[in-house]
Write a structure and sequence with these properties.
Chain lengths: ~350, ~290, ~260
């Protein structure tokens, strides 16, 4: 049986295969490592980078739960990120919150993200995929424009946070663990969704929306639910991010490059898989941060970024995880076919063949 | 009242130029199902080219078009051939979006590298003067821009409806597979169309650069406007792009009289309102086929 | 009235082309009805109208006496009419089993939205159907890896998930090898014996004549003959429709065959 990273449903419900055990152990190890990380690597620069990375893991996983599963690419999720950031900033000032109190705002920020997503989604999801992307871009610019022009958002200079009185040595830790929590939670829910009936409906919409409709799938309802869900974690990490860097302004809170980066992460890892966006974020964000620090000479890393993007899309169009899964499946089938007793299964190599045919 | 009419005039003149740039975008979409996000930064690139020719080589920007237009045409073909053509599979549209965004990022980075972030501008002598007719001020540069746009749009129209190549383009727009079946070299049509779509940015860019100070960051504002125009007019419809551009820019100019800060918001507000009523845009062509 | 499906005087035009004009068909409960006709006679259009994928310009459609004219596809589906498509429409990036689960998803009423897709009952039912059509061993494979014939079988299993009363099959034997055609015919007979009604559009004359009764003939959008296969086969109007304007029909037929095979 091929690795269930791609399909996610097993035929027999009974025995647990060796593959599942390996995967569970790997996940447990990864989690343990993540939890212990700041205690082992105490250098603040390192944990800072880790926090940024986790923020993008959460963002990419959330984005993928909507865009990856449904096939509707959104380039406007920064709307939620910025809204979360600004909300947290405004609320902190208005309600005079300090220290750890601010963290309690995050769920509210998430809620706000979800609330914004409802009219946004109702408006944008009425159209098919091409127009949808463009609408998300347009809405994104509306929000950015609003941030520039409203007094409450501080206009061009944005909103500052006052310095926080956390202990210097472990200053980053609360941020790290919260980011980790959001990221893990998002990935978990993403996984649950994928194997659920809801996820099935989403993926059917992606493959053939009309046919899915004809089979009784309530397309609008399903798409909107996924869209709203995907907004919540993004808004939360937006709020966290504001508090962490103590500043948000329209160009950073609503930064179009973020949306592109997130899409790239999901594509690189494997659009529509659960672990794909995580892997993509774990690869791209640290690389980006590294380059940003190394290449001080102006805007060279933009060029690098774009080139990397192109390479990923042209060379690995399906992303790392599906390509790897297919490669592993191929080797396993080849070994099996070389052994005794041919199985009545279509060789996985036909996947590539079919895919080319369908192009 | 006079200000209102002036705003309308400015809107029409300026709108024509935007129509030109948007026409390229919508043409590319119509033929290739690709939303070329890079169109905005390509306009900026063209503006920088005109700037370099004008300020460093002292070549008049209008004359410079003889260089920039072919240059951008070649660039367009190169982009299509190198990247867009390679895209395969069911996620083609999505991937083309990301690819064109990547190209845009690369160009933007290169422009920052070469020209820096300080806004520049060039003002040919005729840019500052204007014609004074019936109490209206018609800046020469806008008239030139309008003229260019009219000529170019007419050329595109003639090309599409009076030439054999244009027939191939229209056929490909309607049904790619059928076009191939009747012997049209779809790949060549795609490349040339992309080239044309980018070449029009040369003209638009020249006017844009002459009427604004700009830096690489200006691409974002441009592309968001162009996208709004194209969506409003209906993806794939050149006439729609023209109508939408004229409408949007005029609306913005009018709002600008009273509330300058929110003038750009008009763009999006119009877009939102129209899309609520007509999801396919004003003159929307066939929407995405089962994708 | 033992008529299960009844379409009355249905007309439909696409631009300048009159696809259907006053087509009336009648399918009795428990029958395997065939619908044949030259290319362009309006067969698929009629299917589309019955199942809600197209709107009729005029005319009515009744299911078991109840009017369902211009109802939306999901409603038609919910009322017990299932259909297959000429070009198989499956969900390529999902596994065969998942395809089956989607077909049955509207019946699952679990309150927990995150519950695992497909309870054990649904899965068992799906596997039974896959077994029935003979592709159970491919349950975990991605649907896009199936061969054309296997997709046809999947589509058949598919439409059975919802346990429909009447199945509309659009060219079930098209582009399929002879032994598989026999298998499909056999399955149809089995299902019919178990009480299912069929309306089948087909070009394969042997298939239709050997399986269907009654056979209805559509030409230029109207029904020109209807009755047992032997009667229809020898009806001069039918022969005329098929052989009538000779060369044109042959060319169109070849062209359609070619396009179906190639694209």
């Amino acid at each position: 049986m091929s690795g269930s990273t791609v399909s996610g449903s097993t035929v027999s419900g009974g025995t647990v295969s060796a593959g599942t055990v390996t995967r569970l152990t790997a996940i447990a190890a990864l989690l343990a490592f993540a939890v212990a990380f700041p205690l082992v690597f105490t250098n603040p620069a390192v944990t800072t980078d880790a926090i940024y990375t986790l923020i993008f893991v959460a963002w990419a996983a959330a984005w993928n739960t909507f865009s990856g599963y449904s096939g509707y690419l959104s380039l406007g999720h920064a709307v939620f990120f910025g809204s979360g950031a600004y909300f947290t900033g405004i609320a902190t000032h208005d309600w005079g919150l300090t220290g750890s109190q601010v963290f309690w705002l995050l769920p509210l920020a998430g809620l706000l993200g979800g609330v914004i997503a409802v009219p946004f989604g109702l408006f944008a999801l009425r159209v098919r995929r091409h127009t949808f992307v463009v609408i998300t871009i347009a809405v994104f610019f509306i929000f950015q424009l609003t941030a520039y022009n409203l007094a409450v958002t501080g206009g061009t200079s944005g909103l500052l946070a006052s310095t926080i009185n956390f202990a210097t040595a472990t200053y980053n830790n609360p941020f790290y663990y919260i980011a980790l929590g959001i990221a893990v939670g998002t990935v978990l829910i993403s996984w649950l969704i994928r194997r659920s009936r809801f996820g099935l409906q989403l993926r059917a919409i992606r493959d053939d929306e009309d046919r899915a409709r004809g089979l009784g799938v309530r397309a609008m309802r399903v798409k909107l639910s996924a869209f709203v869900f995907s907004a919540v974690p993004v808004a939360m990490v937006g709020g966290l991010w504001w508090y962490f860097i103590t500043l948000v302004d329209p160009s950073s809170g609503f930064d179009p490059l973020n949306d592109v980066a997130v899409a790239l992460m999901a594509f690189l890892g494997g659009l529509g898989t659960v672990s794909g966006p995580v892997l993509g974020a774990l690869i791209i964000e640290p690389s980006y941060l590294y380059f940003q620090q190394q290449v001080s000479a102006g805007y060279f890393f933009w060029i690098l970024y774009g080139v990397l993007f192109l390479v990923v899309i042209l060379v690995l169009p399906r992303g790392v995880i599906p390509t790897a899964a297919e490669w592993i499946g191929n080797r396993r089938d080849r070994r099996r076919r070389n052994g005794a007793g041919a199985e009545d299964r279509p060789p996985a190599t036909t996947v590539t063949g079919r895919a080319k045919e369908l192009a | 009242m006079a200000r209102f009419l002036q705003a309308v005039t400015d809107g029409i003149l300026g709108g024509a130029v935007y129509a030109l740039m948007a026409a390229g975008l919508t043409l590319i979409f119509g033929v290739m199902d690709i939303i070329n996000i890079a169109q905005g930064i390509l306009v900026v690139l063209a503006a920088y080219l005109s700037y370099a020719l004008s300020v460093h080589l002292h070549i008049d920007p209008l004359l410079g078009l003889l260089i920039t237009v072919p240059a951008m045409f070649v660039l367009g073909i190169a982009i299509e051939w190198a990247f867009m053509r390679r895209l395969r599979g069911r996620e083609r549209v999505a991937m083309s979006l990301l690819v064109s965004y990547a190209v845009a990022v690369i160009i933007e980075g290169a422009l920052y590298q070469i020209f820096g972030s300080t806004p520049v501008g060039y003002l040919p002598s005729y840019a500052v003067a204007s014609v004074h007719i019936l109490g209206f001020y018609l800046p020469y540069i806008y008239l030139i821009g309008f003229g260019l746009a009219a000529v170019a749009l007419a050329a595109i129209y003639l090309m599409l409806y009076r030439t054999k190549f244009g027939r191939s383009v229209r056929a490909t727009m309607q049904d790619r597979v059928a076009a191939r079946l009747v012997g049209i070299n779809v790949d060549r049509v795609a490349a040339l169309t992309f080239g044309i779509g980018v070449a029009v940015t040369a003209a638009g860019g020249m006017v844009f650069g002459a009427t604004n100070t700009f830096n690489p960051d200006s691409g974002y504002d441009l592309i968001s406007r162009l996208l709004s125009i194209v969506i409003l007019g209906g993806l794939g419809s050149i006439a729609g792009a023209l109508a939408a551009a004229l409408f949007m820019v005029t609306a913005e100019e009018i709002v600008n009289i009273w509330q300058p800060t929110w003038a750009t918001a008009v763009y999006y507000a119009v877009l939102v309102i129209v899309l609520l009523v007509r999801p396919t845009g004003l003159l929307g062509k066939r929407e995405a086929r089962a994708q | 009235m033992s008529s299960l499906l009844h379409a009355e005087a249905v007309s439909k035009a696409f631009g300048g082309v009159q696809a259907l004009s006053g087509a009336t068909i009648d399918v009795e409960r428990g029958a395997i009805a065939g619908l044949i006709g030259p290319n362009g006679s309006g067969k698929t259009t009629l299917f589309n109208i019955i199942t809600g994928y197209a709107r009729a310009d005029s005319g009515k459609v009744f299911l078991d006496g109840k009017a369902i004219t211009n109802a939306r596809p999901e409603r038609v589906f919910g009322l017990g009419i299932a259909r297959t498509f000429q070009l198989t429409r499956i969900f390529p990036s999902m596994t065969v089993l998942e395809n089956m689960l989607i077909a049955g998803q509207h019946k699952e009423r679990s309150s927990n939205p995150l519950a695992r897709a497909g309870g054990s009952a649904s899965r068992r039912h799906a596997m039974e159907l896959l077994d029935f059509v003979g592709i159970a061993s491919h349950a975990a494979a991605l649907a896009q890896t199936l061969s054309y014939g296997q997709r046809k079988l999947l589509e058949l299993a598919y439409v059975l998930v919802a346990d429909p009363e009447i199945l509309l099959l659009d060219e079930p034997a098209g582009g399929v090898n002879p032994s598989l055609i026999n298998t499909i015919a056999g399955k149809i007979r089995e299902l019919n014996a178990a009480g299912k009604t069929f309306l089948i559009v087909e070009h394969n004359m042997d298939f239709v004549m050997g399986l269907c009764d009654p056979v209805m003939v559509l030409d230029y959008g109207t029904v020109i003959a209807s009755g047992p296969p032997e009667q229809v086969r020898n009806d001069p109007k039918v022969l005329d429709a098929y052989l009538g304007t000779d060369d044109e029909d042959d060319e169109v037929e070849d062209g359609e065959e070619a396009s179906r095979a190639g694209i």
